[in-house]
Design a protein that fits this description.
Layout: H1 2-24, H2 42-50, E1 53-54, H3 57-60, H4 77-83, E2 85-86, H5 88-99, E3 112-119, E4 125-132, E5 135-140, E6 143-146, H6 153-161, E7 165-172, E8 179-184
Parallel strand pairs: 1-2
Antiparallel strand pairs: 3-4, 3-7, 4-5, 5-6, 7-8
Helix pairs in contact: 4-5
Length: about 200
């Protein structure tokens, strides 16, 4: 029963975090003039990501006293690059934004934010997910991973969960904040309310 309740809390968290992130992003607007580096390949994106240090959001915002709650802020890609510090979702948002530069090399390429909420909480993770020639790829904390062509999205979710018990996961467009997919557990459906955000 406890994990059932936790899985619904995780769905609400994943659905609603864009709203409280948007409030916290008000403090980041000064970074929006930051120019992102130019990339011409997937290897370039890895190289750029190597310059960013993985840092917990709590260390980036130590004044926030919500350590016991499920709190996380999704920063702008420009903020991540300017500070050269963020956690997994910062890496994912930056990598999604950098992928836009590879449209000439891979027409129609688009990066999505895949967030997987698990127990224990420390194993929860976010990655940049994208497809090239029907093969799924991801950047996880800046490192490129190419999957077997037979892999479905639930296979990738299992890998991202790293052995944790999956409470909920979402796939969203970081530019528009549109939820492409949101699930409770690995495959549990949720009401349509949670499938729309804007």
């Amino acid at each position: 029963m406890r994990n059932y309740i936790n899985s619904w809390l995780a769905v609400v968290y994943l659905w609603g975090r864009v709203y409280y992130s948007s409030v916290l992003r008000l403090f980041e607007t000064k970074y929006l003039t930051t120019t992102l580096p130019t990339v011409t390949s997937l290897a370039d994106i890895e190289r750029v990501s190597d310059e960013v240090e993985w840092t917990s959001d709590f260390k980036l915002a130590p004044h926030v006293k919500l350590r016991r709650l499920w709190w996380d802020c999704i920063s702008y890609a420009e903020t991540v690059w300017a500070k050269k510090k963020d956690d997994c979702d910062g890496f994912a948002v930056l990598d999604c934004k950098l992928l836009d530069q590879l449209d000439d090399l891979y027409p129609g390429i688009k990066g999505y934010l895949l967030s997987v909420f698990v127990i224990p909480r420390r194993k929860s993770h976010a990655v940049c997910l994208f497809v090239i020639d029907d093969v799924t790829h991801m950047f996880t904390n800046g490192s490129h991973v190419e999957f077997d062509p037979s892999y479905q999205i639930t296979d990738v979710v299992d890998i991202v969960a790293a052995g944790g018990e999956i409470l909920a996961w979402s796939l969203e467009d970081p530019e528009t904040n549109e939820i492409i997919m949101i699930k409770r557990g690995i495959n549990g459906d949720v009401p349509k309310l949670f499938k729309r955000r804007f």
